[in-house]
Amino acid sequence: MSDELLAVEHLAVSLPGPDGPVPVLNDVSLTVRRGQIVGIAGESGSGKSMTARTLLDLLPAGAEVSGTLRFDGAELDHRDRKAMHALRGHGIAMVFQDPTAALHPMLSIGRQLTEHTRVHLGLTRTQAKAQAVELLEQVRLPDPERALRSYPHQFSGGQLQRIAIASALAARPRLLIADEPTTALDVTVQAGILALLDSLRSEFELSVLFITHDLGVLASLATHTCVFQNGRVVESAPTAQLLRSPGHPYTRALLAERAETAEVPR
Amino acid sequence: MTLLELTDIAVEHRAPGRGRVRAVDGVSLDVRSGEIVGLVGESGCGKSSLARVAAGLSAPTGGDVRLRGEHVTPLGRRRRRRAEIGLQMVFQNPYSSLNPRRTVLSQLLDGVPPDVGRGPERERYALDQLTRVGLDESAATRFPHQFSGGQLQRIAIARALAARPHVLIADEPVTALDVSSQAQVVDVLSQLVRGLDVGMLFISHDLALVRRLADVTAVMYLGRIVETGPTERLWREPKHPYTRALIDAIPSADPDAGLPRALAGEVGDPAAVRTGCRFRARCPQAFAACAEEPELAGEDHTVACWLEADDTGRAA
């Protein structure tokens, strides 16, 4: 398909262990189209984050990868370090779970939001600053000018996550990988981040690979959802269909567990 | 029977260049035996400041903490009074609340009361605590780094239980843990509270977790409790607009539900001196009366909101 942005086919990853390689991903295939949000759901240890890390070549040393990864029509080659470096940030960017760990505590927000745009996009200092202000406005952070002069400890967790998203968007990536971006946040803040990602998708045709343990987060956000268990995709379907009639017993178990606590009678 | 009584607690912090920050402003809360009281609110609303006061770890600026009718004096350099040992805390991060260089057994023995006996009996008692939280006795000789986060938190709970507490204060006990180990720690906590008839103040920003665990839920916003009530009732019929907003922000697994509704604005700066209802600036239903501060009112299910006050209250 022509609007396909990312294609992962038959991906298998194994990590070195004390008794030989340990398989962590097995025959994983998924596609993300332009302007589409795709969800990956599963419990911890199911291989969600490993998939994201494989795409950016952030795997631990000694990992063995097989299968094909296609981004924007071209095949990704992890041995080509230069190409991978150019891809990170500009092609694919990532937002991590813990925004306090993702930002450097001793550098101003301004420095952290302009450094990579100057490298990747070759902007001058003034251009980079203007762009940083614009980005912070996009993520709806109040008073961006002042924010640029501030340091991470001066913000709340939700504000920091929005800054981390701004930073990930700075080099105009076409795919954003969000690895549990709202897990550490309050529900009210989470709702804001979800709305933000959805509006970025519709405004800028941003594609998002959204990794979460909570199927509820994906319900209204992702058009397509893949459920992971033990390093395999056990179910992959349009989100609405997957939630209405889950085909795999594991998906049903995830939904049932959720219904006990999180479903509110409305 | 009421075990822990917090009356009109106020906590102020001073920070250079910010003036005084009133983190907790007049909170009253009771914990009864065998009861789990859940305290929810967004980060920065003063939950942890209140927890530290409740556990006697820091002194409140105003108000009174009583454990079984006796004053709890904040921990200083002196040794804790015997009566206050009945108040134990489980901290957020087990990686830092356990000593990495001591074995699990030696840390558990710290909490064993003196009347248990001598060496072997004390050891037996400590090992029993481990089995109580569902860990194997062989864990005793190992060091914290040999365990997962969920196991460590259960060890921390075992250590708190060794002192035969009347009340446990758990401040975000599962937030630092993996989602799959959260469930086991929550199950251990709820079984113990029911089984041992201790009371628990369970603090969390996760409403779904509080709903699953707590008998009574208190919702806190900017240093004040805005609504309390039996958990199920509060969930089904939230009265305060803030509680409603919190519940609305939880994503639903129903594909037709749409994105969860986000609450407008940011949590206010706790350093700012404010008048009237604190939630007013973000409240979709704010009206003239909100310029005055509402008091918590109601029988079982209390709420601090002018919308719920009857007409006489509104006129006043």
Automatic annotation (TrEMBL), chain A:
Signal peptide: none annotated. Pfam families: ABC_tran. It comes from the Bacteria. InterPro entries: AAA+_ATPase (IPR003593), ABC_Ni/Peptide_Import (IPR050388), ABC_transporter-like_ATP-bd (IPR003439), ABC_transporter-like_CS (IPR017871), P-loop_NTPase (IPR027417). SUPFAM superfamilies: P-loop containing nucleoside triphosphate hydrolases. Keywords: ATP-binding, Cell membrane, Membrane, Nucleotide-binding, Transport. Residues 6-255 form the ABC transporter domain. Its main location: membrane. It is a peripheral membrane protein. It is found in: Cell membrane. One of its GO terms (molecular function) is ATP binding. Belongs to the ABC transporter superfamily. This is ABC transporter ATP-binding protein. It comes from Prauserella endophytica.
Automatic annotation (TrEMBL), chain B:
InterPro entries: AAA+_ATPase, ABC_transp_ATP-bind, ABC_transporter-like_ATP-bd, ABC_transporter-like_CS, Oligopep_ABC_C, P-loop_NTPase. It comes from the Bacteria. Belongs to the ABC transporter superfamily. Residues 4-247 form the ABC transporter domain. The keyword Disulfide bond does not apply. Keywords: ATP-binding, Nucleotide-binding, Transport. The keyword Nucleotide-binding applies. PANTHER family: D,D-DIPEPTIDE TRANSPORT ATP-BINDING PROTEIN DDPF-RELATED, TRANSPORT ATP-BINDING PROTEIN. This is ABC transporter ATP-binding protein. GO terms for molecular function: ATP binding. SUPFAM superfamilies: P-loop containing nucleoside triphosphate hydrolases (SSF52540).
